[in-house]
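Hi support team,

I submitted a single chain yesterday and got back a structure, but I'm not sure I'm reading the token output correctly. Could someone confirm the output below corresponds to the sequence I sent? I've pasted both exactly as they appear in my results page.

Thanks,
R.
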Amino acid sequence: MSTAPLSQTDYSYRTDPTVPKFDDRRPLLVYDGVCVLCSGFIKFVIKNDKDEKFQFTAAQSKLGQALFRHYNLDTINFETNLLISNGQAYGKMSAFSNCTKLFPYPARILSLSGLIPSPLDNWLYDMIAQNRYSFFGKDESCLIPTGDLKQRFLE
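Hi R., thanks for writing in. Yes, this is the structure output for that exact sequence:
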């Protein structure tokens, strides 16, 4: 299964002085803010997050950069979305499947992607991630939330 966290240490980012404080009682999705596919995924999460559980930040933000550094991820070529949920960090297909587990049905069915055996799931994710700009495009700037959504986006 592809649901293993990046780190087994619960809340390890709390003791890292370089990671800005954030409300970790709610799941946080860190995404490539200029990637059309990634921003589309965030819009999909917003649409399916009926209870407004999720909060978001771009990988390009101060918080996103700090979390990527904390988990030894590339801070320039963002090759994964990062989900922080219940003190655990998840990347690649694990982030996707654990994120969709928090949706109501029928969207929760997408969490079955966690049944794709590793390393097949990571190979598939990596293939898409490495070609995401050529397949889906790249925005000039990060997604800018408006109205009620603005409070769910951390900077």
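A quick pointer for reading it: The helical segments are 36-48, 62-70, 92-100, 120-130, 132-136. Let us know if anything else looks off.

Best,
Support desk
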